[in-house]
Each structure stands twice: as structure tokens, then as C-alpha cells.
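TL;DR need C-alpha cells for one chain.
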Amino acid sequence: MGQEGAGVNWLAANQTKTNSPFFFTDCQTYYCRSVAPFQDTPAVKSTFTAELSTDRPNFTVLASGIGSGPNRFVQTNPVASYLFAVLAGTLEKSRTGPRTVVYAEPSMLELSVKNLAHMSDFIDIVSCGEKIARVDRGGAGPVSLEGLCGNRDAGAVLGWGHGES
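>> reply
TL;DR here they are.
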């Protein structure tokens, strides 16, 4: 694949378990420039609304942001362009927690759910940390949370960089 389309990727039907193509973006590093005219720097953040469509009725279309209608996604929190993501394919979903859902090809869903089973706990730990830790934009070091959130026997280290937002 050439540099012009590095952020836009397809898997051919023979590369998937469902034998149907799969589309996804990869906006990490500087590839977001090949998806849309993004300003590619963490210093520039933006909100967006995306309306996406496919001519394949069995495809699930997803994008970073909150679903606000069929194939419509809204991101109201300003984010850096490398966090923009789109995917489309034959996918099923399974809820793994109150705020977490896993999407995968049908034959891979059970394994994917198993591998990501603790994702909801991690989000709970981070949310708890956000409530009890003060973010010092002047360069606070990492905050260690061990068993502080509810009655979980959980531990996490949350780090905030120097001046990162």
C-alpha cells in the first residue's frame, strides 16, 4: 500500500472468518492525513459528526464517538486526529459491562469477550482515579491506586504527563 492511503485499510474476504471484506482506518502516527484533511498534531483537537453508509446490509459500521442514529456518530469532546477511527464489516456485539461493548466477527466474539472481560473493571478503576486524583498540569507524577475504588481488590497506575491534556 502506498503512502497516500496508509490510514485506510481493507481486508479481502479470504482474510476474514466471515468471508466478507472488512474496512478499518488506522490514524496512528501520521496516517490520519490520508483519511481526511486532519491537522496532525496532538496540540490541535476537534469535535466531529460523521455519517457513514455502506451498500452491504449485513455490515456493522462503527466510528469513534457516540452513536446518535443509524450510522451517525458524534464526538463532542475535542480529540486529536489520531483518535479518529472507522470500521465496517460483518460484526456482532456483546456487552461486557455497563459502559463497554465488544464487537467482533461472529466466530471470534466469544474469544474476544473472554480476552477483554476485564475492560469494564479497568474503566471503573480509571473513573475512580479521576474522582480522587487531582491532575496537576504542571507535571504531577503517576498516581497509584490499589484497592481504593470500592471493595475491589484492584490495582492500577494512572499517569499524567507533563502538560498533556
